[in-house]
Amino acid sequence: MDDMQTGANSAQQSGGADALARPTASTDGVLAALDEIRAAWDAGDASAYAGRFTEDASYVIFAGLHDLGRESIRRTHVPVFGKWQKESRMTMRVLDLRFLSADVAVVLTEGHVGTGPRPPRRFDKVQTFVMVRRGGEWMCAAFQNTKRNRLFAWVNRLADRR
């Protein structure tokens, strides 16, 4: 997990995640699955990337476009890896990980995709992953990616000070 920052300290600094503060085999499995998603992105392998999602997964990108199903995710990522994000690398930091049941986890991350240095100076996106365990394997059933808007973040910080 070289490029994924996790652990009790990062989770507690960002609001705390009991699941990260007390790692379990399930926590380790979810984090390993996220690392496999990142590694497939770094390799530019659309099939391996899509293979980490369930057959019926939903996938929403920051522009509001969506894919439904593993094959759609794979097909969409062929040009992404071949053109727009060629040789890019993914970095993510887990902000929160919580289990809704023994086989369902929700993970909140902040991340960045680019060709520059890692870790990046700032993470520019926030993602939600819904991870499910099927047959002992953790996979992503739903993904939502939101681009941070620096202007709105600044305005919110000003409002919070009042």
UniProtKB/TrEMBL annotation:
Domain DUF4440: 31-139
Region (Disordered) location: 1-22
Record-linked InterPro entries: DUF4440 (IPR027843), NTF2-like_dom_sf (IPR032710), Steroid_delta5-4_isomerase (IPR011944)
Domain of life per record: Bacteria
Biased composition, class Polar residues, residue ranges: 1-15
Gene3D superfamilies recorded: 3.10.450.50
Designated name of the protein: SgcJ/EcaC family oxidoreductase
Taxonomic source organism: Agromyces archimandritae
